[in-house]
């Protein structure tokens, strides 16, 4: 066959050559300079002088930007999730004049200050420099970029005060400076933001202090989060029924104001005031807020009093939203009494108070008065007898065990209501069921969120034989092992010992409590291997051992769980290793999370189109299998396989999963090849779900070449 003329070949390739030249040369030069400043980290492997910069990872271009006639201009730059990107932000970022979005995110070795050259980005709208190690002051020169709408500097090491000049930004929609080391007050100039459209203001987890400027009461904040700082004084002016505020979080400060005088925005969806010095009572108007969209409410650890107003909002939340107040009462807390608490009075004290009025001695009372007093005494007894009997309904053995637990925890403030003269069924953190015996028996024990509760779990927890729920949660100073006497709790269903400092092995004797349905030991310091005996629990629905120090392999016996209803298995953030036992492919897991371990080998048997599995997270392990051979459960909602050694291509069948309930999909940092199959699932996710693979291509990655297909 005769060869094609050179001119014809040029005509065929001309569109490709033109496309390659569409990248603006000045932008390309700036990007190459950024790559060089970051020591040519692997993230920038596609950034080569012979390719078009608009096809590079993390780069977006717009050929139609106003005022440009010299190739497609770079409008977006994204460098995310890579510990190999080290050093300060290069000043060359200022040499991308058409940039509208700059995002450096989860780069733990990105250090130094924000460079002043960034002020040359006069079109910059979105500045996201989050989850890095940037430091120094938040620069006031950011106010010189009037196009900014979003500034997110969260999770860094920024220090100093918040620049007042930022209030001059005319189009700002969001300021997120959370999780830094900022000090000083909030600038009063922040009250000058537009009243009806101020930015969301997120300043939590800093060291800010002082009173709030009253000017902050002028803007109608959509979201204002000032939690976990050291603010003092009044915060009531942030509220108002006529405002459109949706989220208010003032928790863990030193705010002191009268909540009774507040009216709440009717569009409020989240209100957290816990751990302050707020007084007064809860206004009944809180129940006029739209209940369907109200997800968070917490007024615990304040100085509130009075009855919790009944209504759809207050009824949605449990004891932990209200407890540790001065004298707050009513459901879900113990019932309110009159001006004095009748249950604190014994029969003898009632008689004494009735017979002998104040400043009156017995010999001073005549016979008629005595008869009148005796009559009123009988009326008192008849009125109060039900309350007194109810007070005695607490089982004496349960009460003895609870007081022993209180003593073992050094009578911490959490147990202030646990007194020998009161009914144990009305103590904080206690639930009873009067129907299980001749007296009310303790069925639930909750001790949560208190650093003053210290020491090991008392063995006397085993002396509550009717207990069905035991929850010790967020007690950072609860230490030691799980006591063996817990096996006496033969009715125990829910064992929640999470976010503490418990250690030692996960005990195999838990298998001796056949009633267990949920075992959550997450966020502790447990070590050693997972006991295979736990597979014998007949009714288990959840194992959460995440965020511990477990080692060894997953027991092969875990494949013996009921095939159609195994427990959710959550083992992430441990040091587990070895190949998965093939027996794990038998149960149809609802949720299986093995992420952030050192597991190896095949895991493809966890999948299957006929399975009802909803959630699979195998990320950050050393799994190695051919993804091409996998079929996915049609009910899948989460699939995360990132940071493994998985090969093959993405099966087109992934797009048969229901896209309406599929929020997470990530196959990045593997060894996948081939074209990403087009469809509703794969189109939902961006570059960061696919990048850092061997030769994966197609939208949203650069187009495939003949070598990649």
Largest sheet: 11 strands, mixed
**Given the structure, what is the number of helices?**
5
What integer is the average pLDDT?
87
Strand content: 15-25%
Radius of gyration: 32 Å
Using the alpha-carbon principal axes, give the shape: globular
Give the spatial strand order of the biggest sheet.
Answer: 1-2-4-6-8-10-12-14-16-18-20
- Low-pLDDT runs of 5+ residues are 1-21, 339-392
At CATH level 3, the topology of the domain at 559-567 and 584-709 is Leucine-rich repeat, LRR (right-handed beta-alpha superhelix)
Structural class: alpha/beta
- Tell me the CATH architecture of the domain at 559-567 and 584-709: Alpha-Beta Horseshoe
Number of strands: 43
CATH class of the domain at 559-567 and 584-709: Alpha Beta
Helix fraction bin: 10-25%
N/C terminus separation: 27 Å
CATH level-four homologous superfamily name of the domain at 559-567 and 584-709: Ribonuclease Inhibitor
Protein model, in words:
- The protein has 709 residues and is α/β, with parallel strands linked by helices.
- Among the domains are: 1-133, Leucine-rich repeat, LRR (right-handed beta-alpha superhelix) (Alpha-Beta Horseshoe), CATH 3.80.10.10; 342-390; 392-515, Leucine-rich repeat, LRR (right-handed beta-alpha superhelix); 559-567 and 584-709, Leucine-rich repeat, LRR (right-handed beta-alpha superhelix), CATH 3.80.10.10.
- Helices cover 11% and strands 22% of the residues.
- The chain contains 5 helices and 43 strands.
- Strands 1-2-4-6-8-10-12-14-16-18-20 form an 11-stranded mixed beta sheet, with no helix packed on it. Strands 23-24-26-28-30-32-34-36-38-40-41 form an 11-stranded mixed beta sheet, with no helix packed on it. An 8-stranded parallel beta sheet has the order 25-27-29-31-33-35-37-39, with no helix packed on it.
- β23 (430-433) and β24 form a beta hairpin.
- α3 (347-355) runs antiparallel to α4 (367-391).
- The longest helix has 25 residues, at 367-391.
